[in-house]
Structure formats: structure tokens, C-alpha cells
Amino acid sequence: MSPQGGSETHGPEGLLLVDKPRGITSHDTVSSVRRALRTRKVGHAGTLDPMATGLLVMGVGRATRFLRFIGGLPKTYEATMRLGVETSTLDAEGDVVRTSEVAVSDVALTRALAGLEGESMQRPPAYSAVRVGGRRLYEAARKGEALEAAARPIHVERFEVLARRGDDVDVTITCGGGTYVRVLAADVGAALGCGAHLTALRRTHIGSFDVEDAVRPDDPGSPLPIDRAVAHLPGLTLDAHEARAAANGRPLGPSGLDGPHAVRSPDGRLIGVYEDDGPRSKPLVVLVP
Length: 289
Known about the structure:
The protein has five helices and 17 strands. By secondary structure, it is of the alpha+beta class. It has three domains: 14-72 and 208-224, 2-Layer Sandwich (Pseudouridine synthase); 75-206, Pseudouridine synthase (2-Layer Sandwich), CATH 3.30.2350.10; 233-286, PUA domain (Archaeosine Trna-guanine Transglycosylase, Chain: A, domain 4, Roll). Strands 1, 2, 3, 4, 7, 10, 11, 12 and 13 form a nine-stranded mixed beta sheet that branches. The protein has a four-stranded mixed beta sheet with strand order 14-15-16-17, with helices on one face. A two-stranded antiparallel sheet has the order 5-6.
């Protein structure tokens, strides 16, 4: 692997915690931040559907290179499911395709949610931005074409009822990256035999990042330090010779650490992220001084 780098002129850079409003896409949110900060180099870790609200972790400037290490962090959501109604998109944005009588006890509901905890395989929904053969699934679905993505492994750490109001059920979910919560809602409905769809979704946490600390996309303020993007990774402080080599994207000796790890200069400055590869440690991302 080669480092991502090159000379560049630095404008604003760092991490932003943004509270995405309902009704706009994650890309729209990025565009709003770009306008507010007057910079083009903005990206995000972990898309939210237009219907969803809540936490988007964004990178500005050189911090965009580190978003890859955030996307896989556990995510926590608060959601509302409506039992007895199925839709084409598995959420409130779609057309109703079936309704059923709901005769579900609280005990059965709790068991259905618990049954989805742990490791499983999940197929991305038809109305999603996943590409198959170069085409977005939602593009094919809108044309009535049957196009399926391969099932992917997911991990659901927690899936619990917060409150029930008739056929509407408020839940909290903690899961790994790449999990579609609306598919989980549909799976609950299938397990209960009455169908279900998602009516509201709010992401509250990504790893240690909290939506309570998030800002509006049109008023983002100053970004957080880039270091926040790698705070969850193991760290390694290099000696002066190693630090010079790492700053130039050269391989280092093996660290003995599992997976990506942040490497720092003797004074604690972040140089980049490395990963062991056999007898050497190779750069994944290097910050250019």
C-alpha cells in the first residue's frame, strides 16, 4: 500500500460532528458544510438516508483521508417501527404494499428483537445506493428491475424496546458499520408475522462521538483536531529516525500491533496510520507536513 499524500495548500481541516436534518441527503449536508467553510475538500463517514437525522462525522481537508478509520465504528440509533404495515422501501418514504392485523405481545416483540442480535448476514435493500454491476440498486428498483446485492455480514450488539405506543415501537440499536436499520425493522415484522417498516431514525453515536456535540451543517464552526479521527486506534510513538522515515511514507519495522495504528513523532505529533504487513509495517495514510 502506498500513502495518500502530496503537497497541498491547507485551508480549514479537521473533524466535524454534524447533526443532519430530516429531508436532505448526506451529500446535501456535505454541500452545506462546503459552502459554510468555503472549501471543497469535505467528506463524511457513514451515510444517512434522507428520512434519517442525527450524527454525521465529517472530515475537512486532510482529515478526509482518515474517515476510513471511522466508518466501521459501532453506531447507535434511536428508531421507530410501525407494525402491521410494509412499504416498498422498508421505511416511510415508500408506498404501502401490505397491511396486516397486529396481535403481538410485548414478550413476543422483545424476543423478535433479541433474535436479531449477534452476527448475521444482511442483504442491502432494493432502494439503496449500493452498486451492482456499476448500477445503483435504487435506479434499477425505480425502473421495476430486479437487481440484488450480495448479502453482507453484520453485527447487532443491542436491539431493545424503549417504548410501545400501540403499533408504533420505539427502539434503540447498536450495530456495526454497514447495517441497514430499515432491513432490521422489516426482519422484526417478518419474525412477528405482521410486517413492519421504519417511520423514524436518528443516529446518536458513532464510536465515542455523540450527536449532543454536533453542529448545524450551515453553521459548523471550527473543525476538531485531526487526531480525534484516530483516538480509538492503538498508538505508537516513534524515535526521531523512524519519524523521519514515516513522514516520507517509508515502511517501518513491525509494530506487533493488530490492525491499523496511529504513529506519532517523539513530540506526540500525528504522522499517519500504519499497519503491519509481514516483516514490515506499511503506511496507510501519511500527513504531509
